[in-house]
Design a protein that fits this description.
three-stranded antiparallel beta sheet, 482 residues, nine-stranded mixed beta sheet, 16 strands, alpha+beta, 15 helices, 45% helix, 16% strand
């Protein structure tokens, strides 16, 4: 039989004593064995006994020592260190062992060790609870992170789908028809709103069908003679301009009912081609062509793909443009011109080269393209250089000249296919006002898109050079500045 040194209760085995100590004296409320004081912790209880019951406590300790000597009983409290001391009892010489944690005296080292083990178990139990709580916190944090990741992936998936649908609309792959369908649909809307007479609808429909049949643009969005008018204006006005360089003559084309919202690339190609067709240098490769309508341009690009030009670009557009509202950009314009043996190259101004996201290097490149000499010479220079195709995200335009102003700043002169004929025709007036040039002028601070690409024409390709460029287009590359 073993007797508890705290409350005197007897148990039959050491495991039972451990259980008794853990349940009664470690987990439950501590009660003073002399006056039944409770509601305090173990250390406070020891202080209470030492101060309020010192005589009774001393008798009890002597009684414990006698029992320990006679019967080898033990207290089963806990600790992680051991201290052994030898005391001489009045009845016998036997070593006594103090628990360094609670001061309990035992005569048997093995029992004291078991008592210390209980201290360790209690400590480990507390640490285990801490580990369990930490594990739960980590698990909760992991669950929250997973939920956050799931929401992020869901949002990214939604945005990707929206972008995909936007690109499908942009590339005309949403099965909503092409130039012809859009032209008829928009003219019907005009009739329904009373802005077009039914007879006008049928006349314009017949003209469109004829244009599509022969593949030639009907010229209804074309304005000619602007470059000549600008040259006259700068000769007699624009006193703040030191020098100005113009491209060769070029016609302006703007978007119509059939290509509004997606046809800028095609219209800029028409502008560029209108200039080449008026230049004798390109007679051999263009063979008396006329400016094609947009569906014909789409067919011509498809033919270039079939020859083997730009297979990656063709794949992105499903090898099909006809019957769609697919946008085209610098690569498609380069592909089409090269297939016609027009020598050109792409220059990629892939990042800003000036403050506040500006591109002064782009302006300098265009100035060098048009001007062979910077100093001296006339104020107005009409060159034989073709216009430049200018592309940025979502839109394209045509550069037809550049100003060098008296304060040394540069200003591009640009034809925009989004500008209607009625505005462009104001530039043809003999008494043209300076305010009319506002729609053409673009200073460095006006072009702040992240990236710009240009297609610049340089001459005519031989048949061998065309084959070489077709091979090179298997992996499309462009000159990068900077």
């Amino acid at each position: 039989m073993l007797s508890c040194d705290i409350c005197g209760e007897t148990v039959t085995s050491e495991p039972d004593m451990k259980t008794h100590l853990l349940i009664v004296h470690m987990e439950n409320e501590v009660i003073c064995p002399f006056c039944k004081l409770s509601g305090v912790n173990y250390d406070e209880m020891c202080f209470h006994i030492e101060t309020a019951h010192c005589e009774q406590n001393e008798l009890e300790r002597n009684f414990e020592r006698i029992n320990a000597i006679q019967y080898g009983t033990s207290d089963n409290r806990k600790d992680n260190t051991l201290q052994c001391r030898t005391e001489v009892n009045s009845d016998c010489d036997q070593p006594l062992y103090d628990c360094p944690m609670c001061g309990l005296i035992c005569t048997n080292y093995r029992i004291l060790q078991e008592h210390v083990d209980l201290h360790l178990e209690e400590s480990n139990f507390g640490q285990g609870m801490d580990r369990i709580q930490c594990s739960r916190d980590l698990e909760l944090a992991h669950q929250l992170q997973q939920e956050e990741d799931r929401k992020r992936r869901s949002e990214e998936s939604r945005q990707e789908m929206e972008e995909f649908q936007k690109l499908r609309r942009q590339y005309g792959l949403d099965n909503s028809g092409g130039y012809k369908q859009q032209q008829l649909r928009n003219m019907e809307i005009e009739v329904n709103r009373g802005r077009m007479h039914p007879s006008e609808f049928h006349r314009r429909k017949a003209d469109m069908m004829e244009s599509l049949a022969i593949g030639i643009d009907d010229g209804k969005t074309k304005t000619s003679g602007i470059i000549e008018a600008l040259c006259r204006y700068y000769q007699n006005a624009a006193t703040d301009v030191k020098r100005v360089w113009f491209s060769a003559v070029v016609d302006h084309f703007h978007s119509s009912f059939g290509d509004k919202g997606w046809g800028c690339g095609y219209r800029n190609f028409q502008m560029l081609l209108s200039s080449l067709l008026q230049n004798d240098v390109y007679d051999d490769c263009l063979k008396g062509m006329s400016v094609p309508c947009i569906p014909k341009i789409q067919s011509m690009i498809e033919d270039a793909w079939k020859e083997g030009f730009d297979p990656q670009g063709a794949s992105q557009l499903n090898n099909r443009l006809q019957g769609t509202k697919a946008w085209i950009g610098a690569c498609e314009v380069y592909t089409l011109l090269t297939s016609l043996r027009v020598k050109c190259h792409i220059v990629d101004f892939h990042k800003a080269t000036g403050p506040l996201g500006t591109h002064p290097r782009l302006f300098e490149w265009i100035l060098n393209y048009y001007s062979s000499e910077r100093e001296g010479g006339p104020k107005v220079v009409c060159t034989s250089k073709p216009p430049i195709y200018l592309q940025h995200q979502g839109h394209s335009r045509t550069v037809v000249g550049i100003e060098e102003r008296k304060n040394r700043t540069l200003c591009l002169l640009i034809f925009d296919p989004g500008c209607p004929s009625r505005e462009m025709q104001k530039l043809l007036k003999q008494d043209m006002e300076a305010s009319s040039l506002k729609q053409l002028r673009k200073f460095v601070g006006n072009l702040k898109h992240k990236q710009y690409q240009i297609v610049a024409v340089e001459g005519v390709l031989s048949s061998e050079e065309k084959v070489a460029r077709r091979q090179a287009s298997q992996v499309f590359t462009a000159e990068k500045i900077p």
